[in-house]
UniProtKB/TrEMBL annotation:
Name of protein: Metal dependent phosphohydrolase
Gene3D superfamilies: Hypothetical protein af1432 (1.10.3210.10)
PANTHER family in alphabetical order: CYCLIC DI-GMP PHOSPHODIESTERASE PA4108, CYCLIC DI-GMP PHOSPHODIESTERASE PA4108-RELATED
SUPFAM superfamilies in the record: HD-domain/PDEase-like
CDD domains in UniProt: HDc
Origin: domain of life: Bacteria
Residues annotated as domain HD-GYP: 141-335
Pfam families the UniProt entry points to: HD_5 (PF13487)
Amino acid sequence: MRDRPTLDVPAGLEEEYYQINPDILQSFSKFRPPLNIYRFLEEVSRITPYYKVGERLSKEQTQELADLVAAGVIFVSREDHPVYVKHISYQLDLVLLDKHLTEAEIADIFQIALTRRMEAFFDQPVRLVYDKVREDVLVLTQYVWEDFHRAKALARRMHPNHTLANHAVNCGLLGLFLFLAGQSETFRESRNARTLLDRTILGLFLHDLGMTRVPGMIRDKTKPLLPEEMQKVRGHTMAGYEMLARLDIKFPEMERSVSEHHERLDGSGYPQKLGMGSISETGLLAGVVDSYCAMITKRLYAPAMEPLAAAKKLLDDNRRYPADWVKRLLGVLAK
């Protein structure tokens, strides 16, 4: 973000408006910005309208606007936050530049952007679309890498209804918070810490990749599945593993998240019936967030459970689910 002069703004101004920086201005349509723009008149210490949506800026006005943005006197209204969120979600790296957005506002942007990205990927799971998913998830991990506490607002952005994309985003955001909450204070300084974070969170977003190979009529069925239908569902973990290979994604954290999220400590899971000591830590985390996020969303065949009730159900099932991860989840809900 470029340096701008410090303004003597009235108290409360930043609660109603936030500044636009040059990078974000460049992301707008040059002659028709997507939202209303305001100018701060320093000599009288007040905000005045500068541009109204639907108008068209002249070439001279676009240059003037750029100069005013560089001077730090151009603002947008927080009432236009939904418009701004939708706009900036298409260029997610801009959240790293805008220092005037609140953590809650940024969490909204991440949820919208990542959901749209996962919808596109599940609709067309090819390398080109995956690369865009990876790019946006790395913006997410960079954002929290700067301050681990930022993950808290992200974990509150749970979609209430189940779709493949919604579930992926719920698991990714909640898993990100739990993963960071489980690290020691020296984690950031440890070797390959950032790489581990990136690959683990990517794995959580992609853990149900193989479900794209299960027919929609089976995924959305409201009645009990027939044995052959259940077999197809149970095959999604290995289908996802094979899809990773075809996409040339060979990182162990991602492979384990995809292949192990239905394994259980007592060996009752699938596909390999792994037990305690054989399931990776990434697989255990993926299993907890996958089950929890499925339970708290409304599905065609089941209503949503209350978050605390869902977490307690996992804790009671400690023969199958790791108590340390579930207790961490309960700690989050208690706060």
